[in-house]
Structure formats: structure tokens, C-alpha cells
Design brief:
single chain; two-stranded antiparallel sheet; two-stranded antiparallel ribbon; 2 helices; 4 strands; 28% strand; globular
């Protein structure tokens, strides 16, 4: 299944894990103090990396929706 939507719920601790695992989709926004999902990302191309980022998130705030 491919991923069609990705978001970060409240509670991100800006550990940098998401950006390290999948920089094509995630970025740390220092001003906001959280990871963000890049609008330009094609989630279907990075499904495995998104799943890995979500699974390795220490506070379980990376969420995604599959087709």
C-alpha cells in the first residue's frame, strides 16, 4: 500500500530522527519547535522510509494514512 497522507501530531520533541530517516518528507522547523511534513513530498515514493520514521519516533507522533 502506498501512503497518501502524512502528519505530525502535537508532542514532537524535535529529536531530528524523522529528518534523518526521510529528509525527502520531513524537516525540523527550529522556529516552530517541531518536525514538519514538506508539502512538495510525493509520499508514495517514500512509503518505506515514512513507515520507518514513524516506527522509530520516540514519542509516536508521526502518523500516516494509506490508500
Amino acid at each position: 500500500m502506498s501512503i497518501k497522507r502524512v502528519w505530525i501530531e502535537e508532542g514532537c520533541v524535535t529529536c531530528g530522527n524523522s529528518e534523518e530517516v526521510c529528509p525527502e518528507v520531513f524537516e525540523i522547523d527550529i522556529e516552530v519547535g517541531t518536525a514538519i511534513v514538506l508539502d512538495s513530498a510525493d509520499f508514495s515514493n517514500y512509503s518505506e522510509k515514512i513507515r520507518l520514521a514513524a516506527a522509530s519516533c520516540p514519542v509516536n507522533v508521526i502518523k500516516f494514512e494509506e490508500n
